[in-house]
Amino acid sequence: MQETAVEYVDMWFYKPDGFDELGGVWPVRIGNNIAKPNYRNGPRQTPYCNMHFVREGQVELFYGGRQVVLGQGDIFCKFPNTIYSYQIVPGERPLRMAWITFDGHQARHILKMTGFAEDRPYRRGAVDKDMEIVLQQIFQWCKGDSRKQLMTMYSLMYRIFSKLLPDKDFEPSYSQSDWVRKCLDFIHAYYTEKITVADVAKYAGLHRTHMSKIFTKQVGMPPSDYLIKTRLDRGKQLLLESTLSVTEIALSVGYPDIYSFTRAFTRRFGASPNAVRKQGGI
Fold first, then answer.
1. Are residues 210 and 137 in the same domain?
2. Of 254, 250, 242, 241, which is closest to residue 272 (Cα–Cα)?
3. How far apart are the first and last CA of the chain?
4. Structure confidence at residue 19 as a pLDDT band (50, 70, 90)
5. Residue 170 within a domain
6. Cα→Cα distances 44→66, 78, 98, 250, Å
7. DSSP code, position 234
8. By the 8 A CB rule, do 231 and 269 touch?
9. Which contiguous run of DSSP H or E holds residue 274?
10. Helix (H, G, I), strand (E, B) or coil at 117
């Protein structure tokens, strides 16, 4: 990280590398300031997500034709490519703020998960003593450029996000298609493990019988058959495209042994695994 010192401002810029960009979110700049008496920023937009933490004094935020005055302990955010401006509200105490600017595939989603919306981009009283300590730690760790320092800063940044999440996640209403997609995602992710239809239903939060009925109607086969199909199709692919033994393939696609895999495979494809491999397909 490169440190830049400006009067009333301490700011650190970070250029992510290829490793950072494999993640869902990464820092762009981190800073804190003590504002000048005539302090004003904007109107302007940036391509990044941003959280501003009001640590002392008051600031007036202008967004979408609206305005709000925020004080100590409040947070406001800026969504990417949206015009904002803010300015100091004169008072007995100076305006002190900290900010974290971040980018990534999950950045906008994180803003929404943590309670911000483009029509209400602020939260009152969200900065407690523990978050203030985390902010101080971020300022310390962001000055280094070793991978350990960066990983520590990442963990602190996620700690702030987690503190802003509600204690109980909001449960959206799902359609039948949504539930089935959730079941399919689970099967595709974990078919190599010893999962059962009961595990799929539990993940989806549905009674097993009800889930099976919805799944069969939407997919055209029961979830038990779909799980078998997924395992065997992958097994056949490995037979034709890899040098793994039949035993290794059986264990790799979620079967407990070569015998149960061979029986199921032969029923589905009309030939044994070894025969399919020799023929190069069927």
1. no
2. 250
3. 57
4. confident
5. no
6. 15, 10, 18, 58
7. H
8. no
9. helix 273-279
10. strand
Residue 89 contacts residue 96 (beta carbons within 8 Å): no
* Collapsed DSSP state (helix, strand, coil) of residue 29: strand
pLDDT band at 2 (very low <50, low <70, confident <90, very high): very low
Q: How many CB atoms are located within 10 Å of the residue 16 CB?
A: 17
Is residue 105 within 8 Å of residue 73, measured between CB atoms? no
User: Are residue 121 and residue 181 in the same domain, yes or no?
Assistant: no
What is the tens place of the pLDDT at every residue in 67-123? 999 999 999 999 999 999 999 999 889 999 999 999 999 999 999 999 999 999 999
The two three-digit tokens of residue 115, written as one number: 């309670």
Q: In angstroms, rounded to a whole number, what is the distance separating the alpha carbons of residues 63 and 104?
A: 23
Residue 14: its pLDDT value, please?
85
What single DSSP character describes residue 51?
A: E
**Helix, coil or strand: residue 11:** strand
Cβ atoms of 12 and 3 within 8 Å: the answer is yes
Specify if 231 maps to a domain.
Answer: yes
Query: Does the pLDDT at position 5 exceed 70?
Result: no
Name the helix (H) or strand (E) containing 54: strand 49-56
Domain closes at, from 164, 199, 230: 164
| Positive or negative: CA dihedral 21, 24, 29, 30 | negative
232 in Cβ contact with 264 (< 8 Å): yes
DSSP H or E run through 258: helix 258-269
